[in-house]
UniProtKB/TrEMBL annotation:
InterPro entries per UniProt: EF-hand-dom_pair, EF_Hand_1_Ca_BS, EF_hand_dom, PPIase_dom_sf, PPIase_FKBP, PPIase_FKBP_dom
Domain PPIase FKBP-type: 74-164
Enzyme class: isomerase
Catalytic activity: [protein]-peptidylproline (omega=180) = [protein]-peptidylproline (omega=0)
Taxonomy, superkingdom: Eukaryota
Positions of transmembrane segments: 32-51
UniProtKB keywords: Calcium, Endoplasmic reticulum, Glycoprotein, Isomerase, Membrane, Metal-binding, Repeat, Rotamase, Signal, Transmembrane, Transmembrane helix
PROSITE patterns: EF_HAND_1, EF_HAND_2, FKBP_PPIASE
Residues in EF-hand domain copies: 164-199, 208-240
Lineage, broadest ranks: Eukaryota, Metazoa, Chordata, Craniata, Vertebrata
Designated name of the protein: peptidylprolyl isomerase
Species the sequence originates in: Ranitomeya imitator
Pfam families: EF-hand_7, FKBP_C
EC code: 5.2.1.8
Length: 240
């Protein structure tokens, strides 16, 4: 990996620079050599710092004149989409074909879809069309999936047909998810309930909260892994 290699270069150059300097010889040549090595180390390190995080490239193809509201995490989006492999242009997915020609709903920002969609479909208006280019790290990575070979960069043409408010906001999930691991533990839910009770001036009753937390998890932790995932949170919604 390029980033790892750069770091190795930095370390190697630095140690060379150090050993050149500690040789005790003070000739101009040796000093020059030392400075060249230091400069090389600095350049390599600067290069490493400049290597960007994988990003989605967004090209707006069409934007409506009127835009009442823009998409944000937690919204439900209705989209039509065509997906292509950048390498050879093969279309591997299309709502116009596969979903009986119907657009599909999904919730933005909760990793229900690939990260590239969560990042690339923010701030979008109904009626807007985008072409997004998604690097493998934000799509199906080194493994690939189905028709998508390993390490594929994907191109999607996406039309946003409609936006609905998600049943629960992304913000409240983030507020509850104290350690940012994208799932709610019993402790996090308990802490949230406690805070809510106190906010409304109710006395905190620990055993009552335990019962409440258990019943919430019984209903909402669909896969019984002991956590309420962002997805589980977004789709079921009575107690919280
Ligand atoms: Ca958590
Ligand atoms: Ca779960």
């Amino acid at each position: 990996m390029a980033w790892g290699r750069r770091v190795v270069e930095c370390i190697a150059a630095e140690s060379c620079a150090t050993s050149a300097g500690s040789g005790g010889e003070s000739g101009a040549e040796r000093r020059l050599m030392m400075w060249l090595l230091v400069a090389a180390a600095l350049l390599a390190c600067a290069g490493a710092a400049l290597i960007p995080e994988p990003e989605v490239h967004i090209q707006v193809l069409e934007k409506p004149f009127l835009c009442k509201r823009k998409t944000r995490s937690g919204d439900m989006l209705l989209v039509h989409s065509d997906g292509f492999l950048q390498d050879n242009g093969t279309r591997f997915y299309s709502t116009y074909v596969e979903n009986s020609g119907q657009p599909v709903w999904f919730t933005l920002g909760i990793r229900e879809v690939i990260k590239g969609w969560d990042k690339g479909l923010q701030d979008m208006c109904v009626g807007e069309k985008r072409k997004i280019t998604v690097p493998p790290a934000l799509a199906y990575g080194k493994e690939g999936k189905g028709k998508i070979p390993p390490d594929s960069t994907l191109i999607f043409n996406i039309s946003l047909m409609d936006i609905r408010n998600g049943p629960r906001s992304h913000e409240s999930f983030q507020e509850m998810d104290l350690n940012d691991d994208w799932k709610l533990s019993k402790e996090e839910v308990r802490a949230y309930l406690k805070a809510e009770f106190m906010k409304h001036g109710n006395p905190v009753n620990e055993s009552h909260h335990d019962v409440l937390v258990s019943s919430i998890f019984e209903k909402e932790d669909e896969d019984s892994d002991g956590y309420i995932s962002a997805r589980e949170f977004t789709y079921i919604h009575d107690e919280l």
